[in-house]
């Protein structure tokens, strides 16, 4: 029996597993699909800026079991691309080698570690499920200790997508652990090193974002950085000192460092360079998807580290890995439609289309769409085998279908 192994149980890994299974089942192939994940859950990472983070993950088994994908709980320690095996340390601490005929890397990303004195020791983030819960527990502790120096000041580093969503939600998160008066009186500071809020969002959404931050009474500090963090204070690059017990880093992502065990071409974010069908350049048997992969969505735009791109890349990577093993034609990954929906807290949300982010909806209408995305669209399908596989099926151009039929009959 041939083996397709998927490393990573995030959005890209899960959609790769479903897409590969769809091809295996459609062609009645004798291929085992295995997912290796550090835990048996999909973390709904795009929602970790919200309160109640303990609710923001969902089990993988209800999706994987009906489509005959085996789930192995473990951590991949290394990859041998010559002998075609991965070294997996399982939940019991036992390490063993797992052979693959095709491998899909979907190991995701991790927060950038900023060179700020004291940030690693005294800072917080919402990069992972555990980190988000730790922050929430911290908020509960300090908001129940009103005499503690700096308990009422909250600093968010980075005014990108995540930083904006978190800071816009912050007063409501504070209220969950205290009361409305404490939440309204809190001093919330957003620190950004460039001269613009949302530097990567472009000019079209910016007025709406700035208005939302103003309405939320956020103290925005542009062209500044945090120089030092202590247990009860920060120092900014202009010399200002603020007493605070809560400093949250949201300043960008980089590819998971695990992938450095594979000696391949990478970009400045550590992402592995792939061909147009998501095959890792220089290694025939390995594909990559999601935040770990560098690929183009069209003729000129690179993928972003986002759930939106990870899901679709996973679909193409799974499809191509299975078909490659079956000796069938592959499809180039493409995702020309680009949409964004930015949560602006009490100001609603902002929905845009295109890479220039033309505004389509704002306020309550955009907020309703954002909630639909967050609570429905990005969750994995469950149900019968056919119900799951129909959702992930890729629409294949007629000429590609003909090529596949000829390959099978030949």
């Amino acid at each position: 029996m041939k083996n397709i192994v998927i490393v990573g149980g995030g959005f890209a890994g899960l959609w790769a597993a479903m897409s590969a299974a769809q091809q295996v089942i459609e062609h009645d192939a004798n291929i085992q699909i295995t997912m290796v994940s550090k835990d048996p859950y999909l973390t709904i990472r795009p929602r970790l800026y919200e309160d109640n983070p303990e609710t923001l993950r969902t089990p993988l088994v209800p999706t994987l079991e009906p489509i005959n994908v085996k789930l192995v709980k473990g951590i991949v320690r290394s990859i041998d691309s010559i002998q075609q095996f991965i070294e997996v340390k399982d939940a019991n601490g036992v390490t063993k080698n797992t052979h693959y005929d095709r491998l899909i890397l979907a190991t995701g990303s991790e927060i950038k570690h900023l060179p700020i004195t004291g940030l690693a020791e005294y800072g917080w983030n919402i990069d992972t499920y555990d980190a988000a819960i730790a922050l929430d527990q911290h908020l509960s502790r300090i908001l129940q200790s009103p005499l503690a120096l700096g308990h009422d000041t909250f600093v968010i580093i980075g005014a990108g997508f995540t930083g904006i969503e978190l800071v816009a939600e912050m007063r409501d998160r504070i209220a969950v652990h205290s009361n409305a008066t404490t939440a309204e009186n809190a001093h919330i500071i957003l620190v950004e090193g460039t001269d613009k809020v949302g530097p990567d969002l472009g000019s079209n959404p910016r007025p709406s974002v700035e208005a939302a931050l103003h309405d939320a009474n956020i103290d925005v500090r542009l062209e500044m950085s945090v120089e030092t963090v202590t247990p009860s204070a920060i120092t900014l690059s202009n010399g200002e000192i603020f007493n605070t017990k809560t400093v949250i880093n949201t300043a960008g992502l980089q590819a998971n460092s695990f992938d450095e065990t594979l000696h391949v071409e990478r970009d400045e974010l550590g992402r592995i360079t792939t061909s147009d069908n998501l095959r890792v350049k220089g290694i025939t048997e390995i594909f990559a998807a999601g935040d770990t992969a560098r690929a183009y969505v069209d003729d000129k735009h690179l993928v972003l580290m986002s759930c939106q791109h990870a899901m679709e890349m996973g679909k193409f990577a799974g499809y191509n890995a299975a078909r490659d093993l079956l000796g069938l034609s592959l499809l180039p990954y493409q995702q020309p439609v680009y949409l964004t929906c930015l949560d602006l807290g009490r100001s609603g949300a902002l929905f845009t289309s295109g890479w220039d982010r033309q505004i389509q909806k704002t306020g309550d209408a955009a907020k309703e769409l954002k909630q639909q995305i967050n609570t429905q669209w990005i969750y994995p399908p469950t149900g019968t085998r056919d119900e799951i596989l129909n959702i992930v099926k890729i629409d294949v151009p007629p000429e590609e279908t003909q090529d596949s039929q000829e390959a099978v009959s030949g």
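The chain has two domains: 2-110+253-336+384-409, 113-249. The longest strand covers residues 69-80.
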